[in-house]
Every structure is written in structure tokens, then in C-alpha cells.
Amino acid sequence: MLVLQQIGILPTILSRLIQQALRNGTTVEQEFLTCDYMTAQDYYARLADLLDLPFMENLPTQQIFDSEFLDSQLAQPAIIRLYDKTRPPVTVIAPEARRLPAIQARLRQSPEFAASLAIATPKTIADAAWKVGAKRRAEAASAQLFHASPQHSARTVLTARQAFFAGLLIALACFGTVTATQATWIGIHTLLSLLYMGTLWFRSLLLFQNVRKPPAPPLLLSASTCLPTYTVLVAIYRESAIVPQLIGAMRQLNWPASRLDIKLVCEEDDAETLAALNAITLPSHFEIVLTPALGPRTKPKALTYALAGARGDYLVIYDAEDRPHPDQLKEAYAHFIMAPPEVACLQAPLIIANVADNWISSLFALEYAALFRGILPSLSHYKMPLPLGGTSNHFRTDILRKIGAWDPYNVTEDADLGLRLYRAGYRCETLMRPTLEDAPTSAHIWIGQRSRWFKGWLQTWLVLMRHPRAAWNTMGGKAFLVFQLLIGGMLISALLHPTILVFLGMTLYAMLDKPTTDIPLRETIMFWIDLMNILGSYLVFLALGSAAMTEGERKHIGWRAATIPIYWLMTSRAAWKAMIELKTKPFFWNKTPHMPTQQVAA
């Protein structure tokens, strides 16, 4: 505090900073650096003047050696050394105010010490550390899960055993198509229809459970609770138009700025987005992390790369277009401190804000309501594995690091991470306070996004099914079956939907071509099974979403519910596209473009 007085901070401002520090459990200096009174550049330049040391606005990265030590300077940047062949090494520090008297005493005792010391801002030190170790960290982010736990990595699309059985299945299908008898086709029809029915019944059970059990109210924190540091990671790529909205949404988070660590993770060659970010004066608790163009160009690689610099005990993921509830972080923290330690992740509900735009966004909103406000809370209640959504996941940071973070080769890293957490003995639960998102409104963009999701779900299923017995043992039989019905069932229902429609048409044609008295019992039974499968899929889809929606949301669905059959056929097209891409470009990330819903002042 004495140092702040020496550099000219007014007593009234100091009094306010002291109150904030006591309330937030921080130091007066930390509160000062996150207020708008003085930039960090000016503050550390004044500290350099007090110590009579040189102040460095930029560091020559060619004079910094890359080592494991550098990684410690990403989260808590304070010291870095410069090596030059023409002179002794220089230690660059970002000193805390409370350490200044000790530094001054050392300088008085050893004047030559001053020649080996310089001052820089924490951001300058962190930027240099990010840049110097970029290649090493990018390679580690791309390969660490594969090297540590290859059985959990999607880098290998199919194991030798899976490839053998896949080839055998394809060969049998081709052989059967050529040589199949009527009895064979009847058997295939029966098997596929019953598989489809199994996924339908599972969703029906989730619907009944959700209707019976209303969600609990969100947990709250007392006003006197001292909050920890919370890291917010936002992977942003080719999203220049949405930057002002993103910054505005992040500024609305109801959490002390001195306890926030917001990292905007960008590809280093995304010049347009970086220009949009640099055009805004970002608060001191915002940091732009540049991801090198190495390894897979995916969101999970970028997040894993940025995780090395996370300062928070807790961490949340948001997408660039997200508008989270301002109190979502507080609800998550309250939930974590009340939950048992094995609860490692909390999923906030995603709500579609543009439900009224057109029939695609309306049915997308219906689907999201079913998943995030119906299915996931039900699975959480029964302590089953949760296939997480790609955003608004809140983690205990130490556990996230412990299990290897995200798989950079899985294009639905969220679903994979939820399953991997469960297999490691952890659980995921759900929150109440939502995050608003916008759904795609064009079929082309929707299919591109959905095909990526299906490809990632296929990757997740294939990874877990490399060793089914081990998965059964680690998850437990009930959870293993739930996984098969949820992820496997989602894939089966999407892939088989056109086939069931064809079977229904063929059976109906065969029945109409015969007198009523000559229709075999088998054809009658299969007709009703297929009809129930098709109509049941549409009705359960509508009922699951409607049961979770508000009255206002349901009004926007209205006549658009009649387009559910078209929506399902689009889903099937996306699933088959994903099957092809799994072979041709398994790690390709089909980027979903976004536009701002409103201009938010940054």
C-alpha cells in the first residue's frame, strides 16, 4: 500500500481498493491492476523508476531459452532470464509491491546487482513465455493424450481388430445383398427394426422420468463468500464479426475481475479475428493466447494448448457466440463446494435464443431443450455418464489436467471428455442458469455442423468399444448399457431412419397388394413395429423438447412441428456424411459460422 502511495495513488482510491481486496480475498495491488485508474504498463514503469532499474516494454525472445520452467510463467508470470553472448544474463521481473523493500535493500547492499536486473509487466513476460515455448507446447497438446493413454485417443480411427471386423461386416453385407433369400431379408428387417425400437424406448423412459421429477432450484452463495480464481477459455476462430458481442458477454460475468482469468484462444494465422480483438482495449484480466498452426486444427487442440496457462482452481469453456447467465459461475462454484469431490464437471443448459427465426432454428431449440433440460439432468440424477455439450462445461482444473484434458483428434471432444471422466471414477452434474446460443438457420450450415457432431460421436463410440469388456468393468454394466443406448442409439436412429421408412413403405405395398385375409401375421406385426418406430421417433422428439421448454418457447414451435420428418431426414443425411468423412477426413473440423445477435458495447 505504501508503494501505491509513493507512485501517486489518491487516498480515496486506496480506500476503495482496500475494501475490494478484503471482500475478494486479494491484495490491494491485484485490485489496483484490474481497475481503470492506471495501465499495467504505466504501473510497472513507475515501479522501475522507484527501483532505478530499466523498464522493458518488449523482451527479445531470441535471448530466452525454452525449458519446462517457462511453463510456470504462463499462469503466474513473474521472472524470466535473458541470455546474450556479449554480456552477463539479465533477470527480468514483474515484482509484487510487497517485495519492493526487500529488492531495494538488496540493491543497496550490492550495486552490481542492478546491472543484472530489469522490470517488465506480467503480460510482457507471459507473452514471451508463450512465444518461446509455442512449438513444444503445441506438439505436446497434439500428442500428450495419445502418448499417455493411447487407448483413449481418437488419433487411431480404427484399431486392427476393429478394422478386421468392419471389413468382415462390409464383406458379409455385400455377399448377403447378392445372395440373400427372402428369409434373410426378413431377418435383417426384424433386427434393424428392433434395434431402432430399443433407442426409442430408452428416450421414452427419459421422457417419463423428466416429467415426474422437476429440477431442483440452483444453489446460491452468501455475500461474504471469498471467491477463488476462475479461468474462462474461449476458442475463437474466424469470428471477427462476433468479437464485440463476446467481449460484452464476458464483461457481464458476475465475478470479481481480480479473480477472473479470461483467455481468448485464437489461431496465430487468423489475422481477421486478431485484428478485431486488437481494435478493442481489453481489460487486464483478458488475455489473447495464440495457438501455433501445428497438429490438428481443432478446438480441443486449442483448448489443451491454452490450459497450460490457466490460473483458476475452476475453469469453464464458452464458445464465441455464447451469452452465459451473469451468475452462472457463482452457481457452479456453489455447486462444486457442496458436491462430493468426485463431481469433476458441471454442464450448464444451452438455450437457443433465435427459436423464432425459422423452422430449422425452432426444431434445433426443441432438440436442445430435450438434451440440456431433460436428458442430461435425468442422467445426472441417476449418476450416469454425461455426453457433455461443447460449451458451458465447468471443471475442477486439477482433475481436468489429471485425465489428460481434451482429445485434440476427437471432433466432439465434449462427449468424449464426459465419458473419459466417468471411466476415471468422476461424475458430471448439471446446472440451472443457462447459456444463450443461436442455432444455424440454413440447411447447409446445419448439416455441416451436425455431420461433425456425428463424426465425433462415432469416434467416441469406437474409442470406448476398443475394449468392451474393460469399458464394462470400469463403467459398470448399467452405465455401459446407457452409453450404448444414448450414443450408439443416437447413431443407429439417425443412420437407420431412411431404412425404416423404406421397410415401412415396402411392407405397406405388400399388404395393399394382397386381400386382407391373406396378409401374413409377420407382415402385420412388422408394419405396426415400423409405424411405431417412425411415429414414435417424431412424437418422443416433440414431447421431450416440449416438456423442457417454457410456454413462450413452445408457442414458437407451433406449426413447425409438422416439419419434424424433414428434420429427421436431414439428421440422417448428416449421419451418413459423417460416416464417409470418418474415412476420408476424420479430423477435419467443419467450422460453424456465427453472426452477432446484437451489438454489445465492448
From TrEMBL:
Which residue intervals define the domain Glycosyltransferase 2-like in the entry?
315-511
Subcellular location(s) per record: Membrane
Write down the membrane topology: Multi-pass membrane protein
Gene Ontology cellular-component terms for this entry are: membrane
Annotated GO molecular function terms are:
glycosyltransferase activity
Pfam families xref list: Glyco_trans_2_3
Keyword annotations for this protein? Glycosyltransferase, Membrane, Transferase, Transmembrane, Transmembrane helix
Q: Where are the transmembrane segments?
A: 163-180, 186-208, 479-505, 525-545
Q: Extract the InterPro entries matched here.
A: Glyco_trans_2-like, Glycosyltr_2/OpgH_subfam, Nucleotide-diphossugar_trans
Keyword Transmembrane appears in the UniProt entry: yes
| Name the record gives this protein | Glycosyl transferase
Organism of derivation: Rhizobium oryziradicis
